[in-house]
Design goal:
- The complex is a heterodimer.
- In chain A, 29% of the residues lie in helices and 25% in strands.
- Chain A has seven helices and nine strands; from the N terminus they run βββαβββαααβαβαβα.
- Chain A has helices spanning 42-49, 92-96, 104-109, 126-137, 156-173, 184-190, 197-200; strands at 2-11, 17-27, 31-35, 57-62, 65-66, 75-78, 144-148, 176-180, 193-196.
- In chain A, strand 4 (57-62) and strand 5 (65-66) form a beta hairpin.
- Chain A is globular and about 50 Å long.
- Chain B is an alpha/beta fold.
- Chain B has a domain at 4-36 and 48-84 and 208-301: Rossmann fold (3-Layer(aba) Sandwich).
- Helices cover 28% and strands 26% of the residues of chain B.
- Chain B has an eight-stranded mixed β-sheet with strand order 6-7-8-3-9-10-12-11, sandwiched between helices. Chain B has a four-stranded antiparallel β-sheet with strand order 2-1-4-5, with helices on one face.
- The radius of gyration of chain B is 20 Å and the shape is globular.
- The chains are: A alpha/beta, B alpha/beta.
- At the A-B interface, helix 4, helix 5 and helix 6 of A face helix 6 and helix 8 of B.
């Protein structure tokens, strides 16, 4: 499969263009990095690719078709702060199954403990919560993952644990991954190629 | 003599379990750490592991249900809550993580002037803004109007104008791009080079290594090793504790090797050494007795088998 951003333009109302003329493609099983300084629209592009935002120009294509507007989105986004990506009034068991049911294999590889399932989000650490957010997004229907600073808030050991589990899942299921990060060493370690948004973007930020 | 010295610090919280039944949750236990003048000590540990509470304990701003034991000394003098209140903002300053620590309804210039010592707070505030390349108009802005970069410089300014000799920075770097990261770390190096003692609390060991003189590794509520920054090199053989080595080897540039298992959230959950369930070198002794801190090769370690 192939996820494509075609000539994406984005701006807030009539403000300056944040993104303009952005083209990017990602194939199944491929791990691509997206770099660029703060405020250049990396997160905005990630949101558009996962269907959270509508571009003013251009569009996102999945094997040539627009992203589905209803049902499960095959492009899943992971946020930097897991605390604000989970419903604080749900127990972890329900959060995990919000979009479908992740396989036992990936839950095991991410190190989810059965005793955490009955807990509330505020009873887990950031690293533990982020494991749930990653597991939640890795169901059998997910084809592409947008990891927006997925492990920036985590210590090195937890970062390596989560990424190794995601890479294993990617190899098994031909998952395509876009890694958004400021950490050059992380991008170098994970990605087959790294694209720089400063070079892609013709919007006013560049 | 260190400017700031923390000995055998413990912090516990009283929590209501159900109804009136209370339990006590120990989040820091037996922690030793010290910072000298002109030095940056980084305290490195995972987020949510309680290392911010160390900053709050030193400043005396823990919540009311916290119980504290051990001693904190400033220039040899043992701090009491009353003395902490006097020194806070004058001799001991905090650089908080985000602008949410500022008053949202007060212009930032005025907030920085409130922190300033000396006869002319306005001049002091303007000088520090000029030093950090903040345009004069910024002093009239409210916290919500600041960009991320401006906010960071304003927060650093409050610590600098106070003239405090001990600066404690709590997670000042996550999510910064390379240019902003270099700038922020530079601010702290400059403070230390001017003779202050800086404690940098972070989960980002790469950032810490770029600027710190010594690194204290925080695990399950205590410092398990204090090492020189140079000890983090090659394959990590110079490091004293197996967790520090695992942390080093988990970095993307050093193999990206994950260590299985989890940090216990509560200091009392594991018998003996708190790292023992995950330790590749664990022996029967490790499950029995908690290793006391000892001096080793110019640093400190809490491990029965470190050599």
């Amino acid at each position: 499969m192939r996820l494509e951003a075609c000539n994406i333009g984005y701006r807030y109302e009539q403000g300056p263009w944040v993104l303009r003329g952005v083209n990017l493609d990602l194939n199944s099983g491929e791990v691509v990095g997206l770099a660029g300084p703060s405020g250049y629209g990396k997160t905005t592009l990630g949101r558009i690719l996962a269907g959270y935002g509508q571009p003013a120009e251009g569009g996102v294509r999945l094997d040539g078709e627009p992203l589905p507007q209803t049902g499960y989105c095959p492009v899943q986004l992971i946020f930097q702060h897991p605390e604000s990506a989970v419903n604080p009034r749900w127990r972890m068991r329900d959060i995990l199954r919000e979009g479908g049911s992740p396989g036992a294999e990936v839950c095991g590889e991410l190190g989810l403990r059965p005793e955490w399932l009955g807990r509330w989000p505020n009873e887990l650490s950031g690293g533990e919560l982020q494991r749930f957010c990653v597991a939640r997004a890795l169901t059998a229907q997910t084809r592409f993952l947008i990891a927006d600073e997925m492990t920036t808030m985590l210590d090195a050991v937890t970062q390596a644990q989560i990424w190794q589990a995601v890479l294993k899942f990617s190899r098994r299921h031909e998952l395509g991954i876009l890694v958004i990060s400021h950490d050059q060493n992380l991008l170098k370690r994970l990605c087959t190629r790294v694209v720089d948004l400063v070079e892609l973007n013709r919007g006013s930020c560049s | 003599m260190p400017v700031l010295e923390v000995n055998d610090l413990s912090v516990a919280f009283a929590q209501y379990e159900s109804g009136l039944r209370r339990k006590e949750l120990t989040v820091i236990s037996g922690l030793n750490v010290s910072v000298g003048s002109g030095e940056i000590l980084a305290v490195v540990g995972s987020s949510g592991s309680g290392k911010s509470l160390l900053a709050h304990a030193i400043l005396g701003i823990l919540p009311g249900n916290a119980r504290l034991a051990g001693t904190i000394r400033y220039r040899g003098e043992t701090l009491t809550p009353a003395r902490q209140a006097e020194l806070r903002g004058a001799e001991l300053a905090l650089v908080p993580q985000a602008v949410t620590f500022l008053d949202p309804l007060m212009r930032v210039g005025r907030q920085v002037r409130l922190a300033a010592r000396g006869s002319d707070p306005t001049a002091a505030q303007r000088a520090v803004f000029a030093r950090y390349n903040l345009p004069p108009a910024v002093e009239k802005l409210y916290p919500f109007e600041l960009s991320g970069g401006m906010a960071r410089r304003v927060l650093v300014s409050t610590a600098v104008v106070s003239g405090a000799q001990v600066v404690i920075a709590d997670e000042p770097t996550p999510g910064l791009d390379e240019a902003a990261l270099r700038e922020t770390l530079g601010f702290f190096r400059e403070m230390a080079d001017a003779g202050r003692a800086v404690m940098l609390i972070t989960h980002d060991i790469e950032a810490a290594l770029r600027v710190a003189d010594r690194i204290a590794v925080f695990y399950a509520g205590t410092t398990i090793e204090v090492a020189r920054a140079e000890d983090f090199a090659d394959t990590g053989e110079s490091l004293r504790h197996p967790y520090s080595q695992a942390l080093w080897r988990a970095l993307p540039r050093n193999g990206f090797i994950p260590l299985a298992g989890f940090q216990p959230a509560n200091c009392n959950l594991v018998a003996g050494c708190s790292f023992q369930p995950r330790c590749p070198r664990a022996a029967t002794e490790c499950a029995k007795a908690e290793p006391p801190p000892r001096v080793l090769r110019g640093g400190m370690v809490r491990c029965h088998y470190a050599s």
